[in-house]
Design a protein that fits this description.
With about 325 residues, this protein is mainly alpha-helical. It has one domain. Helices cover about 70% and strands about 0% of the residues. The protein contains 11 helices and 2 strands. The chain has a two-stranded antiparallel ribbon. Helix 3 packs parallel to helix 8 and helix 10 runs antiparallel to helix 11. The longest helix has about 35 residues. It is globular, with a radius of gyration of 21 Å. About 0% of the residues have low confidence.
């Protein structure tokens, strides 16, 4: 299925064990004590995760999947950049959640750590289910493409509604099942009060972060299937993007005003990827008409996605700086 070297459960287990080791090292050594993550620290971790991702994509993944295949490297890196780009919108929603609940800065990393651990489990299950579905019914890729186009158009014209925990069904269910404390108790998610076990406010924040990631995963996972349907490449690129999400949050959260057009850029990315999936030939049935089929190379997709994201960020920064200069002139 994958070429010279077939992916076995041992490859999956080895990768998962490595990820769990790094996560344990992160929480048990580098962030054993709760502290405020400063910009310099977050930038250092972000750069480290990007380097590790590219090392894995350029050297390790191809050797696993296809006995050193350049296409596998390109697929991984393209998928990683798509997932990382789409997760940037998730970063800003998480910032709104933290602001709404007034989460102390020293506890935010802990929420993101456990939130990302849950996200890895959810996304792993969704990727395996999606890959199995595509393997059996390849025409479902057209459904994924149509869904991405619909989501991109909807995101393009939708207004930001902010964070509304009272409308979150999981939050409502948690409040019905468990008693909830209306305050923080340090970095604890559960606390014993008068012989009763209560969910803390930090636990509610974690639930919001998890459900938010689940919603974003419904967009990002179909998007990467436009690049490759190899489950190992899809899963590993997703994992690396999610692992870098924590440090990316602390880098970007304080500069949201500099990314005002990023949402538009992400909308265009989703539409482009959806169109790519709709135009690409899928299935093993009779030879279809080729006049409406266009196979967009992965390298072209990488350049288009990177160009859209870079353009939206550049326009955002330019607009913000122009407004700041205008404000300074008016103050004089």
């Amino acid at each position: 299925m994958f070429g010279l070297i077939e992916i076995t459960p041992w490859h999956w287990a080895g990768f998962v064990v490595c990820v769990l080791f790094f996560l344990a090292l992160d929480l048990g050594v580098f962030h054993r004590e709760s502290h405020v993550v400063k910009f310099k620290e977050a930038m250092g971790w972000s750069v480290l995760w990007v380097i590790l991702s590219f090392v894995f994509g350029l050297f390790i993944a191809p050797a696993f999947v296809n006995g050193w295949a350049r296409q596998d490297s390109l697929d991984f890196i393209t998928g990683y950049i798509i997932e990382l780009s789409l997760s940037m919108d998730n970063v800003f929603v998480i910032a709104l959640i933290f602001t709404f609940f007034r989460v102390p800065a020293q506890y935010q990393h802990r929420v993101l750590f456990w939130g990302i651990l849950g996200a890895l489990v959810m996304r792993g299950a969704m990727i395996l289910a999606g890959a199995a579905l595509i393997e059996r019914f390849q025409w479902t890729l057209y459904l994924f493409g149509a869904f991405l186009v619909f989501t991109g158009v909807k995101m393009l014209f939708a207004d930001d509604e902010g964070v509304e925990p009272e409308k979150n069904p999981v939050i409502r269910l948690a409040r019905k099942i468990f008693p909830v404390s209306d305050q923080f108790h340090g970095q604890k998610f559960l606390v014993r009060v008068n012989g009763r076990t209560l969910l803390t406010t930090l636990a509610l924040v974690l639930i919001m972060v998890e459900t938010t990631d689940l919603i974003f995963a419904l967009d990002s996972i179909p998007a990467i299937f436009a690049v490759t349907t190899k489950p190992f490449i899809v899963f590993t690129s997703n994992v690396f993007a999610i692992l870098g999400l924590r440090s990316l949050y602390f880098v970007l959260a304080g500069a949201i005003e500099y990314f005002r057009y990023l949402k538009i850029g992400l909308s265009v990315v989703l539409i482009f990827i959806g169109v790519k999936m709709l135009l690409a030939p899928h299935g093993h049935g009779p030879e279809p008409h080729k006049w409406f089929q266009v196979e967009i190379p992965t390298a072209t997709s990488l350049l288009v996605v990177g160009g859209i994201i870079a353009t939206s960020i550049l326009l955002s920064i330019t607009a913000t700086r122009r407004e700041q200069k205008a404000a300074q002139r008016s103050d004089k």
